[in-house]
Amino acid sequence: MQFHDSMISLVGNTPLVRLHSVTEGIQATVLAKVEYFNPGGSVKDRIALRMIEAAERSGELKPGGTIVEPTSGNTGVGLAMVAQTKGYHCIFVCPDKVSMDKINVLRAYGAEVVVCPTAVDPEHPDSYYNVSDRLVRETPNAWKPDQYSNPNNPLSHYHSTGPELWEQTDGRITHFVAGVGTGGTISGTGRYLKEASGGRVQVVGADPEGSVYSGGSGRPYLVEGVGEDFWPTAYDRDVADEIVAVSDKDSFQMTRRLAREEGLLVGGSCGMAVVAALKVAERLGPDDVVVVLLPDSGRGYLSKIFSDEWMSSHGFLDEGEGEARVADVL
Ligand code: PMP
């Protein structure tokens, strides 16, 4: 019989897929690491598994305990999925810009979700960081993984994403591009690839305009899961060779093109990372291999990025773009 003992053993080993249409005119090979093939639907399954198993070993997470974490959704799904199989309860704290679709997914996995305002300082008592700290203090047997400072976040990528990419490209990868949120993906994967290649692989971070990584002050932007208004310790400042800032509009327009032209229904931070990857790839030659990591699926953003009404209400559709499609249907 061929079966997996649980969903946990399906985490990682995601495929690399070549981009064709959006790379027109580019000589380098551009490959996407499609993380929605993880069982919880995002790259965050990797960190959830490693953080939980490390906390079990250290005794921080006790049998029947409660996992409390501020998360924009994907880390929550990963934690909830692993927690289900191991008998833990979950409470997640989300900022209010996170789509209702994502919050409902967390609740479907049996987690409790507390929603907090986005437009307050991290120091404010209602900020999602502070609310989660309060819940940890007040909940018996609680453990906060804290993906922003947990070394097992970047380590999960050092031990899985990095080696997978090195093997999948037969050591031919020349550039790695990823969006930066907690910084775990770029720091862990980037460090592994730098070591494996003797420093040859160039590591490029993609960041929403306004976020601290690309020199901003934390000004609000709409791409979910990336950018910060503070510097998390999960982010290793020595790894990225370059940070490319991308606007919300460019991120979302590319996200829609990936679905229509490449058959890749992915999230907004994926469009953002691809815009950055293409900017890098434009200046490269035919021997270069650029890998861009796509963190999650587009299913969680149908009422936002993939809605013409939502896109045009934010000024993200170019003149006549939405109308042309209505005319096509008529
Ligand atoms: N995209 C999405 C949709 C995410 O949820 C995250 C995680 N916050 C990222 C990108 C960034 O990954 P990391 O936290 O590893 O920097």
TrEMBL record:
Q: Which cofactor does it need?
A: pyridoxal 5'-phosphate
**Does this entry carry the keyword Lyase?**
yes
Q: Does the keyword Lyase apply?
A: yes
Q: In which pathway does it act?
A: Amino-acid biosynthesis; L-cysteine biosynthesis; L-cysteine from L-homocysteine and L-serine: step 1/2
Q: What is its EC number?
A: 4.2.1.22
Source domain of life = Bacteria
* Cellular component terms (Gene Ontology): cytoplasm
**GO MF annotation: an example:** transferase activity, transferring alkyl or aryl (other than methyl) groups
Q: Which GO terms describe its biological process?
A: cysteine biosynthetic process from serine; cysteine biosynthetic process via cystathionine
| Keywords of this entry | CBS domain, Lyase, Pyridoxal phosphate
Q: Which reaction does it catalyse?
A: L-homocysteine + L-serine = L,L-cystathionine + H2O
Instruction: Give the UniProt family note.
Output: Belongs to the cysteine synthase/cystathionine beta-synthase family.
Name of the protein described by the UniProt record: Cystathionine beta-synthase
Organism of origin: Actinacidiphila rubida
Complete protein: which residues are present?
A: 1 to 330 of 462
